[in-house]
Amino acid sequence: MPAPIRLRELIRTIRTARTQAEEREMIQKECAAIRSSFREEDNTYRCRNVAKLLYMHMLGYPAHFGQLECLKLIASQKFTDKRIGYLGAMLLLDERQDVHLLMTNCIKNDLNHSTQYVQGLALCTLGCMGSSEMCRDLAGEVEKLLKTSNSYLRKKAALCAVHVIRKVPELMEMFLPATKNLLNEKNHGVLHTSVVLLTEMCERSPDMLAHFRKVSLVPQLVRILKNLIMSGYSPEHDVSGISDPFLQVRILRLLRILGRNDDDSSEAMNDILAQVATNTETSKNVGNAILYETVLTIMDIKSESGLRVLAINILGRFLLNNDKNIRYVALTSLLKTVQTDHNAVQRHRSTIVDCLKDLDVSIKRRAMELSFALVNGNNVRGMMKELLYFLDSCEPEFKADCASGIFLAAEKYAPSKRWHIDTIMRVLTTAGSYVRDDAVPNLIQLITNSVEMHAYTVQRLYKAILGDYSQQPLVQVASWCIGEYGDLLVSGQCEEEEPIQVTEDEVLDILESVLISNMSASVTRGYALTAIMKLSTRFTCTVNRIKKVVSIYGSSIDVELQQRAVEYNALFKKYDHMRPALLERMPVMEKVTTNGPTDIVQTNGETEPAVLETKPPPSGLQPASQANDLLDLLGGSDITPVIPTAPTSKPASAGGELLDLLGDLNLTGSPISAPAPQIAQPPFLLDGLSSQPLFNDIAAGIPSITAYNKNGLKIDFTFERSNTNPSVTVITIQASNSTELDMTDFVFQAAVPKTFQLQLLSPSSSVIPAFNSGTITQVIKVLNPQKQQLRMRIKLTYNHKGSAMQDLAEVNNFPPQSWQ
């Protein structure tokens, strides 16, 4: 049989192929020749054939038939054969194939070989594809080589030990004695791999981390890092004028792990971190990499305040770099630190705002998120001006997040109500179609509460929608305001700016144009029709025209619009004496941020969610349960808060006949307090609290569940049954946070179907600590008299990394023991 062609000739031949089919034909022909050679047990050219097979494997062609040939080469005594055999094993074999177990004995023999290069091949192969079984069998040999004086073998053994620890963590202690002298080695290769090994051990075992802190590992690392910084030019390790930046980065990462949550270790490394931060050259990317790792280390350990300011200033310099990747990294890092070092980050506000004009969308998004995190009461006017300018010019994918952020910032830091209203209107004018669903009711509530601004607001909104109905949320708010305050618009009572002269007919013309516009959505038409109806009590000269418009829409093909028109027609004809009372101006709606109670408020035909102020009940009445204000999370008709409350007095009004229907509706939430003995409480969750224990001592047979697990937030439910009432299930929620930053302002809300009653007690805290270092607990009591399967919808809101987060979820996997 003629000698097969060499690898070099095969590569040259394949590269001459003009088409994919031609290349495939060449490969198939050569594979057939290689198979024939393997069948004939041709030992002479086996090494050459396997090398060619590996090249074909790199091109993406199947080469699995060469696996056993690799084992034969490994068993050979020739170094050239072993080299190709081990390379083939690393490329063609993995732990999913049983063939790799046949290598174990060969690797063991080669680990004890007299030639260091053969030992190195075996270490590389074991560290690359060794399975857990192989690692258990060969860990002892690796540990011996880790103690040898040969630097070439020690660096390879250290990396192999890292693989062994990842596969079999319980073998970690075997390598502990060998790590004592690793950092005393002068060879940079051994130092580098030793630091990698120590990092792996510290990350995987808290016990190892505590041990290395005790044995003063930090001073050793500080000494090595200081020598690297202070050493002169070394051609062997120099990269762009910096001595061994790879080793420096690895040491900084290990220092970060050792200093995290440890005062003594952090104190020991403060000085060297300051030296690295001030002495590292920033003109080359290599220096920037070291500085970035230094910043991460400073921010993660318990460092001094001056050192943290230095780190943030380094990130500020990164923002001025021409490299987009460096700017992006700086923005991301500043976003993580803005909560803990707000004032230091504020110094770079102008640079961050300039990044909003960057052409790169990733940088633009990070700059937008960081800009919102920097907004406070002192800079809100300037920051909002920049962000509104950004909203005008940014791409459509940014508008929704930007508008949402402006709404939240304006609500939190608004210097005046007029500024707040102007800002929200500017957003609606610019990006109305991108705003959240709650933007309209929130703005309406803001306007309602700003009594002195009614005339100014309705005039501004009237001018904003003249001839332009493209921004539907703006048109909806304008329609509502014109309906409420149309009399102020016509009378020209605006004092904040020059009043405009508008007649009643001109106002109705605008609303009728909204009704017939092709751009108007069904909801917008509903707002406009309701506004026209309200104006029948504000205007005096156009009531007949309003009656005509309303009667026309009594036959509309839009069912919602038709129903409104029919009802309004009935008010004109049958209940005209009640119309002024029903359509009177909305009262001021109180709103405060609380830990839960939210309700639905009816505003003359428009349903709007609003958080109600929690007020103490009148004297003599039993405080209502917190669950009375429970939010219907998804608006479903089968989910309501069902805990009974004490009736309130009925309001007296000209429209008393209709308002009597609402007499027993309690629209103000009340916090849970001690039971008042003078008023009888309906039998519910707290019955018999003082007479016997509320919960079973043993919650046997009721397993816990994970109700929610997303974005680092985990919610677990545990269950107990009440001794006083078998129909009551007591659920304890535990919220934990696995991310690197705390979650603040955490609010948990829940809703259940009508057949259940639910009581939500106060949480233990509103902050969930990072790294699972603590939990929030909260108790839910559910009364299930019909023993039906329990279902629950939950709503989670919290602040994380400078952003307001909100999510909804449905829990349907309650264990049967919790409700049967």
SSE diagram, text form:
Layout: H1 7-15, H2 20-39, H3 46-58, H4 67-75, H5 79-92, H6 104-111, H7 116-129, H8 132-146, H9 151-167, H10 188-204, H11 206-214, H12 217-230, E1 238-239, E2 242-243, H13 245-259, H14 263-279, H15 285-300, H16 305-318, H17 324-337, H18 342-346, H19 349-354, H20 361-374, H21 380-393, H22 396-413, H23 417-431, H24 439-449, H25 454-464, H26 472-491, H27 504-516, H28 522-538, H29 543-552, H30 559-573, H31 579-582, E3 599-603, E4 606-610, H32 656-659, E5 705-710, E6 713-721, E7 728-737, E8 744-751, E9 757-760, E10 775-783, E11 792-800, E12 803-811
Helix pairs in contact: 2-3, 3-5, 4-5, 5-7, 6-7, 6-8, 7-9, 8-9, 9-10, 10-11, 10-13, 12-13, 12-14, 13-15, 14-15, 14-16, 15-16, 15-17, 16-17, 17-20, 20-22, 21-22, 21-23, 22-23, 24-26, 25-26, 26-27, 26-28, 27-28, 28-29, 28-30, 29-30
